[in-house]
Amino acid sequence: MIINKSINAFKEAKEVIPGGVDSPVRAFNSVGGVPRFIARGDGAYIEDIDGNRYVDFIQSWGPLIFGQNDKEIKQDVIKSIDNGLSFGAPTESETLLAKEILKHYRYIDKIRFVSSGTEAVMSAIRLARGYKNRDDIVKFIGCYHGHSDSLLVEAGSGAATFATPSSPGVPADLTKHTLLARYNDIKSVEECFKQSNNIAAVIIEPIAGNMGFIPADKEFLQNLRKICDKYDALLIFDEVMSGFRACSDGAFAIYDVKPDIVTLGKVIGGGMPVGAFGANKDIMSKLSPDGPIYQAGTLSGNPVAMAAGLASIRRVNQDLIKSLHVKALKLTQGIKKMADKHGVDISVNTIGSMFGFFFYKNEVKNFDDALKSDSDMFAKFHAGMLEEGYYFACSQFETGFISTAVTDDIIDNTIKAVDKVFGHISGK
Ligand SMILES: *Cc1c(COP(=O)(O)O)cnc(C)c1O
């Protein structure tokens, strides 16, 4: 595969942009090799600037559930652009998208739009703290909630559950208000509530997609709800990735657990920058201008972005998710079969249109388990599949996605390529 233009473009980008990328995972650091610079996308495929085509299992990290360059989204975006790009004043498109989302998330009454998942979560945390008038929050090790200060944390040394900053530039004075618990481990949550009586909220990815793909256990989430009630803390579901991906009606429909606040992003923007957070009337009434908790955005609810989101969300329903799930199952079962054939340890998982795999022999339940998986094997798998024309997430700790453009033939061919790549790398 010739990638000279990407090699040059990467070199040039690195001179003016740190690492040559605007979001670190794109740099391929964890798998090695040169990131492909993309020229265009169409349906199930993306094409790099050297003209190589790849089946796209990332879909811009989730948003493109209808594949690349979807006709309906494109049409509606162009129609919206005809009227102007931005007004900084309310438009009807915001109400339309809000209603469309609330049809699915029936347990919340109101939502507010922002321009990214990071912003949605950051605002949800402020809302929870302001509503409860408490400063501490609980987060789970391995869950990612965007790059805002209180959430960019890792476990401190020793057994302490209070977090320390995971990046320079984040004040420890801030992260001391974040307590860390273990995913799928309810005892570790109880520990947090014993350490602090100032907890405003617990935030979780109910279907985690940022430490690899790890869904929560049902009993665990139900107990999490009970603990939050017992200590009068809010429960926040971060469904920025899993929303309209795992299930059309959110994690609630899978787990029968209602969060107090939900955050969304990715699919609700249809490929444009959109995030949102929502809750019941009482909680949302505390938000400015109705209430005292401040939150704002120059381009929030941008009409072009709303048009893209609406063209996407109005077509997502449970039948659609089910049809994508059949394909996701076929793919992961095929990968598992080929791994077994070549003696490669693998654990696979899928919910709705999301899928993941770890090069590890046992089921993966939390971040500690995820870290035990064979990342060298993943890097070789990733490079091999890329060479064959299949674009998987460039890190073991990410999730794969199926779009409506992915056909059964494409999946059959993907599994054949997996067979070939495992044949090369398994060393058996
Ligand atoms: C992607 C993601 C975010 C951050 O969203 P951005 O749009 O990248 O800021 C937050 N939470 C979860 C669960 C995500 O997957």
Describe the structure.
There is one protein chain. It contains 14 helices and 18 strands. The strands form five sheets. A seven-stranded mixed β-sheet has the order 4-14-13-12-9-5-8, sandwiched between helices. A four-stranded mixed β-sheet has the order 1-2-3-17. A three-stranded antiparallel β-sheet has the order 15-16-18, with helices on one face. It has helices at 4-16, 71-81, 92-104, 117-132, 172-175, 186-195, 218-230, 250-255, 281-284, 303-313, 318-341, 367-371, 375-388, 408-425; strands at 38-42, 45-48, 53-56, 110-114, 136-140, 153-155, 163-165, 178-181, 199-204, 207-208, 214-215, 234-238, 261-264, 275-279, 347-351, 354-358, 390-391, 400-401. The chain is 38% helix and 17% strand. By secondary structure, it is α/β, with parallel strands linked by helices. Helix 3 (92-104) packs parallel to helix 10 (303-313) and helix 11 (318-341) runs parallel beside helix 14 (408-425). It is globular and about 60 Å long. Pyridoxal-5'-phosphate binds at residues 116-118, 121, 144-146, 205, 209-210, 238, 240-241, 265, 275. The site of pyridoxal-5'-phosphate has 15 residues, from helix 4.
The coarse overall form would be globular
CATH architecture descriptor of the largest domain: 3-Layer(aba) Sandwich
> How many β strands by DSSP?
18
Number of separate helices: 14
CATH top-level class of the largest domain: Alpha Beta
CATH topology of the largest domain: Aspartate Aminotransferase, domain 2
Give the ligands present: pyridoxal-5'-phosphate
